[in-house]
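Quick illustration for those who missed Monday's session on complexes.
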Amino acid sequence: MSNAENRLNDFDPNDSKGQEVKKFIQEHKNIKGGLIPVLHKIQDVYGYLPKETLNTVSDSMNIPLTEIYGVASFYSYFSLTPKGKHVIRVCLGTACYVKNSQAIIDEIGRELGITVGQTTSDGKFTLEATRCLGACGLSPVMMIDDKVFGRLVKDDVPKILSEFN
Ligand code: FES
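Prediction with FE2/S2 (inorganic) cluster bound:
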């Protein structure tokens, strides 16, 4: 058995997430351009890109780890660290920025005790700043998971956060 196959067998047979990722890697490892779909799959399954899984991808797809990290850090969709249960994305696009979305970020940061890019210690929230969310008419805008909140003022923040468990 090759080293690459051995690495794929590191996935615990009783771990359904691992098996889902393993199957996807097997199906894509010989496809040109297969790396990005594989990274998407891993991100979707685990919510981030675990280091050990990237090592397995490198071995089984015969792609240098440095190249994989290069791709992973280029696209903001990918995360190399686990995200919180809820991801807050506050828009810093032009329309939102001029309506002071920074004040919303500051208020969330104050409420949760984190800054942009961080996750609360209980793993509940991750705070991110993002580009235009395509809802400029509602600026300033933020999303929590797939829910959109518009025309925000900073006093809205505590109540909105309290809606998420
Ligand atoms: S700039 Fe914020 S939604 Fe467009």
